Write the structure tokens for this entry.
Amino acid sequence: MEVEEEAPLSGYGEPWLVRAVEERARGFLENGRVVFLSGPRFFGKSALLGRLGVSVAPVSLRDPARLLYELGGAELASVGEAVRHAARRGSSERPVVFHVTDGQAMSPFESGEDGARARGEVLGQLLGAFDEPEVRAHVRLVVTSHIPFVELGSEAYWAMRLPECTIGDLSAEETRAFGRLWGVDFAVGELEALRDRVGGHPYLTKLLFAAVAQGHSLERAIATSSDDDGPLAPFFRAAWEWLREPELLRAAKEAVELAQRPTTLATFALAVGGIVRPGSPPVPYGAVADWIRRLR
């Protein structure tokens, strides 16, 4: 009798779609290369890191003092020295895995070019230490950000030209494959209808599939996708915390109602929040756009 292969799960015990970005990041880790992982909120960075065995509690590049402490070298003078110190705790078989973040998660309005430059200098010190064979053999470095570093506008980041693992929208085929893992059978036209409402947004797509797993029809889940108490309600609650900043709400309204590009900083924040599609122009996902129209 043929045994079906067990479907992969996320760290939360839910069906998980293995995408090319995961294989790329895993290969970088196994080969001792820096993993530079970017993607908006709700796109699955934490779950992916969990599958890679990486702590989801990163140290911010905004806090060099804590960085030194976490590396175990609080008494040392530089980040580079602390990395070398950490390398002595690791081995080729059991390397030290260290996770740092750009620190842009909660308040993009705090960060100017000077802040980006300062974080770039700290990251530069980290990467400089990784030029040394002993460090590469005994330490693994994972750097995360909510958007690609090359879009942050800092020359320090541009100069690094790191190979990047970016989590983006699901393709149509990935959406279909993800649905199969949740036990979703698409009727004629339903895949297109779903993508019209949530695009390829990984979290929004997962919420619709979860509604089906709880007994709703996919047709009903799609039809109620923009309702305040519908299947996307968990995302809307989190997004509202993001949009309570008046400038962000105004930018979101402009993106929906006026088809105008919001200001650069607001565009950045909306993309970070997973509220608009990555890239330009900043177009909200269909169900999200309908929800935004009702906001006051």
Notes: The chain has 15 helices and five strands. Residues 1-5, 105-113, 151-159 have pLDDT under 50 and may be disordered. Residues 113-129 form the longest helix (17 residues). Strands lie at 35-38, 59-60, 96-101, 139-145, 164-166.
